[in-house]
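The instructor's notes for this session suggest beginning with a concrete chain rather than abstract definitions. Hand out the sequence below and ask the class to guess, before any prediction is shown, which regions might be ordered.
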Amino acid sequence: MQEISTKPYFMRAIYEWCTDNGFTPYMAVKVNHAARVPMEFVRNGEIVLNISFGATSGLKMDNDAVVFKARFGGVSREIYVPVENVLAVYASENGQGMAFEVDLSDTEEEGEEVSAEVEEISKPVLGLASVKSAPAPVENQISEEEPKKSEKKSEKPSLKIIK
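After discussion, reveal the predicted structure:
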């Protein structure tokens, strides 16, 4: 009998840790022909998805794949990500989570597409690590265009003690 990978168990554990602590769980994915994600949001062969309860519908993380529905630009999409394609699961607020080794050379014809960043990651790390090199996240629960914030930065409010 073939041993089941520990990766999906760690993914679920980090997801649960994020939600228990009020953080927003994000999932970085290496995209290939097996992953069904909105291709218009893929950058450098990768996509980062918000997998929080509020951003997804019917989220199912089993030992083979992560499946859910999410809205992108107001359009509901069915997302399918094989566990082998998951680069990291982490909290968006502080970057803490876990990065994973992704080797898609057996399933891709062009095995050279695996980035140097992914090759540097050797094994899942027990405990929480800070995920810094993930691509920018895709907001999959917001409408197509958000109002732009003013370019002018405001100063932080401060208190002055007067005697």
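Then share the key points. Residues 107-129, 141-152 have pLDDT under 50 and may be disordered. Residues 95 and 108 are 29 Å apart (CA to CA).
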